[in-house]
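Recap from last week: sequence in, structure out.
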Amino acid sequence: MVLLLHGGREDGLEPPPALNLPSARMLPFARAIARDTAGHAVVLGSVRYRHRGWNGERDDAAQDAQRALDELSELHGPVPVVLVGHSMGGRAALRAAVHPHVRSVVGLAPWCPDGEPVAHLAGKRVVLLHGGRDRVTAPSGSQNLAARAREAGAEACTLLLPDGDHAMLRRAAAWHALTTQVVSGLLGLAPLPPLVASALTGAASEEDTSLGREVPRGPWEA
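Predicted structure tokens:
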């Protein structure tokens, strides 16, 4: 199962609007993942937030993700889940990974503030993709969280797209295709991209895995 979580705001109790750009931004990822997993028994879903913001200690987006996981588990049973979240949705995915059916998290320019919990990520795989030109969420936040997650017992890495931005519009093809390949690899449907596999298993140098490995232009941009 793959569950997508779109971005949002730090604060906002109003519901997301009908025409919601963060939600629309995830549509190309959904289409690409659906194409790549066609013919396999993979359920693809997305979380609908009740509120537009994270809203401090309420962590509304994470609560909605947990609720969606519980509902999907009732429908489909204890199947392994890969969470894919952008920005606030990335933070929600990391929090929701406490759910027992979540095996992996793919964070796209995730919001990773200092002190974000990581102990529950032990035994799980976490791949964080971040653009070097991101001015909304800090790439260093992803790098620090991945390092702490590894110390807690997770397989975790950060990959940097040096000229990528927060909206994932620069090098959009790389964002879509690399994310899709990572998801298929985490589901066990295909090999992980070598760059990701080496970073997750620790084959990359300590400097690479702590500072984030840069993603060169490659076949995912074809």
